[in-house]
Design goal:
This protein is an alpha+beta fold. The protein is about 25% helix and about 15% strand. The chain has a domain of about 40 residues.
């Protein structure tokens, strides 16, 4: 029994695939630009001008259509209804806009 426990501790201390995945996710989150560093959209190009607070408490521009149909600065995804999302997290992005068609 002691050998099994010691082997399990050794595997955990060396790093399991789940830990490696969590560490990679953590590192990616740490290297992505902060909300202040992201380029803000030009309001003159957008048809909608709302904002919301995300789960982290940051103010984020709500999904919006553009005058030209081209992706505006700061867009992170294109939604199914043709609007562009400025979401800082994948979860819930374009949830009321037909889902994510593509990520930028």
């Amino acid at each position: 029994m002691k050998r099994v426990i010691l082997a399990a501790i050794a595997v955990l201390s060396l790093g399991s695939p789940a830990y490696a995945l969590d560490q990679t996710t953590y590192q990616q989150q740490q290297t992505s630009p902060s909300p202040a560093q992201r380029q803000q959209p030009d309001e003159a190009q957008l048809q909608e001008h709302g904002h919301y607070r995300n789960v982290n408490g940051n103010s984020v521009h709500s999904p919006a259509h553009t005058q030209t149909g081209q992706a505006p600065a700061g867009a992170t995804a294109k939604c199914g209804d043709g609007s562009f999302s400025f979401s800082l997290n994948h979860r819930g992005t374009c949830s009321h806009h037909g889902g994510v068609v593509s990520w930028f």
